[in-house]
Design a protein that fits this description.
Elements (H helix, E strand, L loop, with lengths): L7 E3 L4 E8 L3 H9 L1 H7 L2 E4 L7 E5 L5 E10 L3 E6 L18 E10 L2 E9 L7 H25 L2
Helix pairs in contact: 1-2
Length: about 160
């Protein structure tokens, strides 16, 4: 990984953003952020009832916490967005996606010299139980999770 900058919290727009360079093809990174079997290897065990927009499922973490999610948008090899009910400050996650409090994280991929620029932006924290606490928790989370993604994808390059 040639760029390891940390996630940035923007409290004015209630968003978290991180861009990283991955020494792997866009196609390989795309599979890592869209296919449940690949997402499960670096993020959380992911199950979806389909592959397209509107697919519903869950992401379950090593502590047993299961987060409901939905594919919001998808543009092949360029962009995928997921809504999830991951309100860390609230404690327990709801059994189904909560439209009123869910946040959306979007992966954008761009082919660059030597690999792929992956940017994640998570928005909607103003709707959560404690926006500032959730922003900070998710900043830390994106740093850790994307570092795992890079290690996995570059290790297989």
């Amino acid at each position: 990984m040639t760029d390891s900058s940390s996630s940035i919290v923007d409290e004015e727009t209630f968003s978290v953003r991180r861009s990283i360079h991955i020494a792997a093809s866009v196609d390989k990174v795309w599979r890592a952020v869209t296919e449940p079997e690949h997402i499960s290897r670096w993020f959380g065990r992911t199950v979806l009832d389909g592959a397209g927009v509107g697919a519903l499922g869950t992401m379950t973490f090593s502590d047993g916490t299961s987060i409901p999610l939905r594919v919001e948008s998808k543009e092949e090899n360029r962009l995928v967005a997921y809504a999830w009910s991951n309100d860390d400050a609230l404690g327990d996650a709801p059994a189904e996606l909560d439209e009123a409090t869910s946040t959306v994280f979007t992966f954008t991929l761009e082919e660059v010299e030597g690999g792929t620029r992956l940017t994640v932006v998570e928005t909607g924290f103003e709707r959560t139980s404690d926006p500032v606490a959730n922003l900070k928790d998710h900043r830390i989370g994106w740093d850790a999770e994307l570092d795992k993604l890079v290690a996995l994808v570059e290790g297989e390059a």
